[in-house]
Peptidase S1 domain-containing protein
Amino acid sequence: MRALFVLAVVVVCCCGASTQAAFISRPEDIDWATVRSIREKPGYRGTGVQFLPNEPEPSRSERILNGVTVGRGDLPYAAAILISEEFATYFCGGVLISEHFVLTAASCVDSAQDLSITVMLDAAQINQAGEFVAVSEITVHPAPSDNDIALLRLNRAARLNGKFLDFLRKIYNIRPVTLPNRRQRTMTFVNQLASVSGWGRTASNTNEALPLNNLRLVRNHVMSNFNCGVSFPFQISDRHICITGDSGSACAGDEGGPLTTVDLVTERTFLIGLYSFTSFLGCGMGRATVHTRITEYLDWIEANSDVVILDNWDA
């Protein structure tokens, strides 16, 4: 797998505008009934051909399909992202990669102007999220239509496991995800079991407002890009990694959510993708999902964040 070297960045500041929505600092500040999938945002520019021409986009009820609920602390790197405009709030997934940075899909934030963006952490139950952090800067890949990845800089350090204990003696279940090392750049991960998580669609909760309260996870096997290209003609490149939909799939509201796998030698969980898009037929059992392949962006991530990419985890 070839490495992708990108030096240029697009930076959008998301603070200081007079029309900016107020920062959300607690669950009580959110009217969940008004929160929408990022796909419902006017001007939304997702990657891939996701819907048939003239077909309506999925309704607000679409979520991680057939996932299982995870407990607090099981996915300490999972991030819920609220993108607030003056009269609307939209939702995406993301993943904490350091105390100060979150990765998400470029399609969630590439048109962000005069926005207030809030990252929620320790949010296995989203209505009891333990940490709310404002975003001070957005760094979008300079070619977002082909590279669905963006970095969010937090305006303060996240409260990590064992590092912060507030005056109420509250313990935070927050920890950055492990990123691939440079040795893994050429690995395809084909046939490895991978997990995608989010607050999106479930088959049993189709009438609930977005996002679902409980964080959910589904596991499927990584498929080859050749086989993935059969389902997505002329859309799959080295920048993508696909998983089957045999056990369920990600859906609307899960954009930017983490795709992880476990290293067979060290048994370490690490990030291999960010959910990007699925079939124009919609998300459903048996349909593959397409994710941004993280190993293609290691240099870009290191150049635009405080993360150091290791040559080898043992180094």
Remarks:
- The chain has three helices and 15 strands.
- The helical segments are 106-109, 225-231, 298-304.
